[in-house]
Structure formats: structure tokens, C-alpha cells
Amino acid sequence: MANPRDWFAGRVAVLATMHRKEQAIAPLLEAHLGVTVTVPPAFDTDGFGTFTGEVKRPANQLTTARLKAAAALRQTGATLAIASEGSFGPHPQIPFVACDREIVLLCDRQHQLELVGECLSPNTNYRQQVVRSWAEAKAFASTVGFPSHGLIVRADDTEIAKGITTAEELETAVVTAMQQSPSRQARLETDMRAIYNPTRMEVIAQATQALLNVTSQACPACGCPGFSEVKRWPGLPCGHCGTPTPMTLSVRYQCQQCQHQQDAPCPNSPTVADPTYCLYCNP
Fold this sequence. Notes:
The chain is an alpha+beta fold. It has helices at about 20-35, 60-75, 135-145, 165-180, 200-215; strands at about 10-15, 35-40, 80-90, 100-110, 115-120, 130, 150-155, 160-165, 185-190, 230-235, 250-255, 260-265.
């Protein structure tokens, strides 16, 4: 059976980015898939949404990544594209904790294949704060990794500057914002564009590794990469009374090429559930 790497080795993969995401993505893909990663010249991803709000994202996170990949393929005439898309907000299980959800998508037109890696991480400096003095601005900046992490300054809803990475730029922007704001205040935000956010770059690299993990899972029937999860079933028995719980009991995997399916126990899961999750022991 062919190695999944054989589907990609020696090919050119175009990466849909303008914010240097190749720094996080390219080394991993080139080392493990044998591809050569290139960035299309003058490729504009701002048309697919901006974190600063000038352009709204045209669709959900995955669909937007697909649109980016398709645009890169059209521009270059290549058959293999990579696109990344991130979003920031409350953690789905811990609402008071901010998190970064990154996906990295591989679109292979030659084999009609789409593979996705995802990372949900609480490791983010995603924050914003209203300040009324330069001292408050400096204090906020020190908590979010400035100057290695960039900042955005607004006067109410008007953007004053973004991509700020020096104290001089920050002070000028804050003073200008407070002068322009009727309430004499400035709003500081972390700049979440990858080029200005090393912490986000790390999470993008983790999502890239997740993509490689998916790619390495070959279909046992045809060898196609990406033999991945499509469905989960609850019912893991309670470790105390044996009653089925809402915890995952088994997972179904499916091939995109030949549609072969296979059910297996949930990976990295215990054989029984903690009674905390049992509706009988803990109603």
C-alpha cells in the first residue's frame, strides 16, 4: 500500500497568505510531505475578512479557508493549495477563558482531496482595553507581550494605527486617539494578524501538525490519506455502575476516495467513564 507522503512528494503547494504564515506552516509541510511551499505574489487575503473589522469574513471559518485556497489555485494554476483561518473568542467549555481556534486546510485538486487540521488553544493574548492615560496604555501593553506582539489603537470606533511594535509608535497613537475621542480615551487591542502575533503563529504550527496527523492516516482499503473521523457515538459505560454515559464510546472513520468506513473505540479514551458523567450516579 502506498505511503500517504507519496501523494504529495515533489509537488508545489501554494500557501494563501499575506501575513507570513509560511514561517509556521512551510517547514512542517516540506519536511513531512516532501512538498515545496510557495506564496503567490501579491496575494491579498484581506478580501476574505480582516481582524480589524474593515472587511467582514464572507462565510464561516472552514468555508473561508476553502475560498482562500481556491483563489490561490486560480491565481497560480497549481493543483495543491494550503490555507489557514483563525478565530478568537470565549472557550466553548470555559466561557471566561479566551481561545484561538486555528484550522489549516489542504486542497488537492489532482486527487480531489480536502484535509483539515485544527487546534483549539487557550494560549492567546487576545485582549482589548479602554485606557485614559499613557500610563494605563503602557500597563496594558506589558500584559500582552508588547512589543514582540503588535497592537491596534482606536479612538472610539475610528482606527488610529495598527501593527504597532514600538513604544514611540504606541505613545503617538494613544495620544492621538485621546485627542480625537470626545471622551478622551483610547481603545487598545492586540493585533491578531499572524505577522504581528508570535503566539498565534505557534498555534498555527500546532494546527499544521494536526493536518499532518490527519494526512498520515491512510485508508486501509485504498491507501488514500485522511482516513478521518466522521461520526461519534456516546455510551461509554460508567466505571461505577456500568450505565451508558454521554461520553464517546466509539468513532467512525471514512475515506474520501473509496468511502470505506471503519468503527473503532475512541482514541486516547479510557475504557470506562468517570461516574461524574453518569446520569444514574450523578443525576
